[in-house]
């Protein structure tokens, strides 16, 4: 049954966990009083931000040094005006947002009955080497009962569906303008969740696959104090992108300077052959750039083998980005065995309840100061996955026994009106539940938390009766109401 077809009364199923109740030690009458004093509101909001289940962040600006470095790089290297660069960068941003996940097998299957003009496969390789490499991973002849010419035509048709983007020269400048700030904010949001929920985890070294502009390194040194991460190993195949990030890592903005902003900066073009492990391994906005399913799996296996602590995957919160995350999740569950534990955002290892939709989180950011236009906060949607090698609860304070928490997750943006708060929540059972929390019936502390919660936040609640199964709960009279039409 579609979870959107009904609304469950959350006040009958859940109560505030002890952690959230103890955080707000005020009388119930003042929790949600609209006439509360400003000083009281500030105090409550501060306490809310301190709660380990509240993961939303205020709008994030770029670090001052990174902002200045990006502007200086464009001033020294770009021949275009700021307005012109911003306009073309927006076109690139729109393209990246609408880009599908490279899945050549699906393309070929969909085109089996299509009449195509003959094109030499060598022309495909010349036009887009990445696509030709992607198609090489699939035995297309097994999918097509036809001549070699048909196979060649189907491969050529795939180029109309997806093109690999070459990050060189002017494209790098446009990517800098379009993606520097949102990439930084999204990575901060993912890493911030690790630091907040697992304060004992302090990474000593970082491996960044597809490092691009170096935003993962900047974010890691923003979330954790500078100096905690003593080694930053970055892999980026684009020489121009590496040159740009290298410029921004220099204290005096000169590529040939030996002094960098952070210690232990190592930039490489290819994955190293050594099997050194790293406390923190990150791939941000890189899976969708890889040319095929097999290539993505090969890279994921390599990254997992290098993971000693946490592996973090981040993509844009589009259908393609979420599909890449789900594909990675399924593959890691297959190859990781008992050693892999999902940290976020899923509270379970079962089939995703939103696999046919999109599960994403929002983060707000300030664009860097390329122009003098009024800079308002902007929104970025991201889909992400964080897994750990071994049980991540060992990094919590105090250490929490395995399987001791009931931690649903908000997976939609708040809906509803008046005094009722409605959220879609992902349960540890793997199901999605659209739940309404009436103000008068819900625990006051839990209601206060949920009124401010956003997609991606954890719901600090526990079942009203821990022995009551979900199936039995569904049978309780008056617990469900049909969605109003």
TrEMBL record:
Top-rank lineage group of the source organism: Eukaryota
Mitochondrion keyword on record: yes
UniProt GO cellular component terms: mitochondrial small ribosomal subunit
GO molecular function, one term: iron-sulfur cluster binding
A biological process from GO: translation
Listed Pfam families: Rsm22
Keyword Nucleotide-binding: no
Its job: Mitochondrial ribosome (mitoribosome) assembly factor. Binds at the interface of the head and body domains of the mitochondrial small ribosomal subunit (mt-SSU), occluding the mRNA channel and preventing compaction of the head domain towards the body. Probable inactive methyltransferase: retains the characteristic folding and ability to bind S-adenosyl-L-methionine, but it probably lost its methyltransferase activity.
Protein name, entry field: Methyltransferase-like protein 17, mitochondrial
